[in-house]
Design a protein that fits this description.
By secondary structure, the protein is mainly β. The protein has a domain of about 200 residues. It has 4 helices and 34 strands. The strands form 8 sheets. It has a 6-stranded antiparallel beta sheet, with no helix packed on it. Strands 14, 15, 16, 17 and 18 form a 5-stranded antiparallel beta sheet that branches. A 4-stranded antiparallel beta sheet has the order 7-8-9-10, with no helix packed on it. The longest helix has 18 residues. It is globular, with a radius of gyration of 21 Å. The protein starts with a helix and ends with a strand.
């Protein structure tokens, strides 16, 4: 993380400086902390009426409902009984929330370092049934930014619940003088129905266990008693972990450094199998057959300068190797349905490929006029989130067709 931030700040400063005639200022991504009192944080979970979304995050599907994360603020509940006309039901206020997972009508959500358990069996009368405090010990999510304005936080009485990131013009000399302080802060399924998240998820339920990854740890919970999860021993898993994907008895962790593969044959104690290193970039991973599909997003504080799709041969789990790669613009989430590969390429839209021959991906369509973040390929439809809009598509033989677009504002 230290090396990553140094590289980005120097590059941004030099590039932006060249663009300004006076040569003294540059544009930086500045993250300002969002805080609340400790007392308010402990009483911050509530179920309220639907409201406009502030910043759309991850999506999750359970039965006829779609859950959309409102970054650091909570979860929007949407009735999707009629995909052509989805309806907002409620908003679950959860301070510091970015991830959820659901099994058997129990919703598990992070609230910074706490794990919340909610009963959603009555969707119009959701109940909080449990709160496990300080079990997600390294769960603070750091945004992509050049500068973190952390001065002025009263750590004895306040808690950091999120970040507001904006582009601001700053004196290059002042930014350079604060490198050291900035760097140290940054270091600082069985017969019960289980929902489905997108490729950017950090929560994953496999049978009677919930796996929640933070920057370097797999947090393991026994949820055989759905209302009362048991916090088990954490497993150290590497550095800069961002996402988790499951296939059979294996977990695939996407990190800024590469992909880690873990064996969960003994589910309470995930065991390291191997890793695939790809340098330094932000990425999720999905797996299909003998291949793992990894998107790498450059041009940010992850360190990479180029973006792309990496296809990794995992036929031998102990020795994953790169099979091929393709250039992308700014990819985020991705998903697979049969031979269709869906890639959310940020502002470049949704790209659809036939992946029958991985050495020669065939473009089926490119929806260019939308901003995309993540997708969930369901059996009957594709669900996608991006730019505060929820899109749903039906599958065609060699394409998809829009069912509805719901503005969440």
């Amino acid at each position: 993380m230290k090396k990553c931030i140094i590289t980005l700040l120097v590059v941004v400063g030099l590039v932006s400086c060249d663009k300004k005639e006076e040569g003294d200022f540059a544009d930086y991504l500045v993250a300002t902390p969002i805080t609340m009192s400790l007392e308010d944080f402990k009483n911050s979970v509530d179920i309220v009426a639907p409201r406009p979304i502030n910043e759309s995050g991850k999506i999750y599907v359970y039965e006829n409902y779609i859950f959309v994360n409102d970054k650091y603020k909570g979860v929007h509940v949407i009735d999707n009984s009629d995909p052509a006309s989805p309806q907002k039901v409620s908003f679950i206020k959860i301070a510091g929330n970015v991830d959820i997972s659901i099994k058997g009508n129990f919703l598990y959500a992070d609230s910074l370092t706490d794990l919340m358990v909610l009963d959603i069996s009555e969707i119009n009368a959701i109940r909080i049934v449990n709160r496990l405090e300080d079990v997600l010990r390294d769960n603070i999510v750091w945004p992509i930014a050049d500068i973190y304005e952390y001065d002025g936080i009263d750590y004895e009485n306040e808690i950091l619940v999120g970040w507001d990131v904006k582009i601001e013009s700053r004196l290059i000399s002042e930014v350079n003088n604060r490198f050291d302080d900035q760097i140290f802060l940054a270091e600082a399924v069985n017969d019960v129905q289980v929902g489905q998240g997108g490729s950017l998820a950090r929560f994953k339920i496999v049978n009677d266990y919930l796996y929640a990854v933070d920057s370097h740890t797999i947090n393991v919970f026994d949820i055989s008693d759905l209302e009362n999860p048991r916090d088990l021993e954490d497993v150290y898993a590497g550095f800069d972990i961002e996402t988790i994907f499951n296939r059979g008895n294996n977990l695939f962790l996407g990190s800024m450094r590469g992909m880690y593969i873990y064996d969960i044959s003994s589910p309470a104690t995930p065991t390291f199998i191997s890793e695939f290193q790809h340098g330094t970039a932000c990425d999720p991973v999905v797996v299909d057959g003998d291949y793992a599909y990894v998107t790498l997003r450059g041009g940010n504080n992850c360190g990479a300068t180029e973006s792309g799709l990496f296809i990794v041969d995992i036929s031998d789990l102990t020795s994953p190797v790169l099979a091929t790669s393709y250039a992308m613009d700014e990819p985020y989430g991705l998903g697979i349905k049969d031979n269709k590969l869906f890639i959310c390429d940020g502002k470049s839209g949704l790209k659809i490929y036939d992946k029958t021959d991985i050495e020669n991906l065939v473009s089926l369509n490119h929806y260019e006029n939308i901003i995309t973040f993540d997708v969930i390929p369901m059996n009957e439809s594709l669900i996608m989130i991006g730019d505060e809009i929820l899109h749903q598509y039906r599958y065609l033989d060699n394409d998809i067709e829009l069912i509805s677009s719901m503005n969440l504002n």
